[in-house]
Amino acid sequence: MDFGIIAMLAGAGLLGGVMNALAGGATLVTFPAMLAAGIPPISANASSAVAVTPGHMAAAIADRNMLRGFGPTLWLLLGLGMAAGAAGSWLLLITPEATFRQFVPVLIGAATLLFALGSRLRRQTDGVEHRPAHRLRAVLVIPSCIYGGYFGAGLGIMLLAVITLTGPESLRIANTLKNMLASVVSIAAITIFVVQGAISWPETLVMLTAALIGGLIGSRLVAILPPRPIRLAIIALGTVMTVLYAYRMW
Length: 250
Hints:
Layout lengths: L2 H20 L4 H10 L4 H22 L9 H23 L2 H29 L8 H17 L4 H11 L5 H25 L5 H21 L5 H23 L1
Helix pairs in contact: 1-2, 1-9, 2-3, 3-8, 3-9, 4-6, 4-8, 5-7, 5-10, 6-7, 6-8, 7-8
C-alpha cells in the first residue's frame, strides 16, 4: 500500500468510527473506501465488516446487564442470529464476483434507505404498547441476520425495527439486544471470512485501528453535536455513493 491508500483507509475508518458512535452508517463509508483501495467487491465487503465490528461488540458488552431478564429467549435469538449470519456470509462467498458487483449499488441504496427511515420508525413506535410476539420476532430475526452476514450495512436499523415491533422493551433495552444480535452475526460472518481467506488484512488493520479511534472521538462528540444534521449528512453521502456506483458498475 502506498501512503495515499493508507491515508484514505485511515480517514474512512476514523469517519466510520465517529459515524457509528453518533448515528450509525459506517459501512456506507468503509465499504466504498475498500473498493477504492482496489480490493475486489466481495473481499472489500468482508474486510469492511471486520473493520467496523469492534464498535458493535463494545456497545453490547457495556450494556449486557440490561438483558438479564430475557433468559432462554435471549439464547434462542442469539443462536438464530449466529446461524443466519453464517448462512449470509456463505451466500456472499458463493456469489460470483461479477454478480455481486452488480448488486453493490442496490445494497448501498437499500442501506441508505433503511438508515433514512430508521428514526421515523423509532418515533412511530416510541411509547406504543406492543404485546410480546416472541415467535414472530424469532422468524423475522432470521432474514435480517442473513442480510447482515451477506452485506451488513443497515442491519442495526433492521434489527431495531424487528425488536421494537415485536415486544414492549424500552428503546435502551431494544438497542442493547440489537447490538448483541449484530455482534453474533459479525462473529459468525468474520469467522467464515477468515477461514475462507476472504479478508485483505493490511487494509483491514489500518481501517480497524482508525475506526477504534473514531469511536472514542464520536463518544465525546455525541453529547455536543445535534443528531439531525449528522443523519442528513450520512443520508446524503449514501445517496451520492449509490448514484456513483450505479454509474460505474451499470
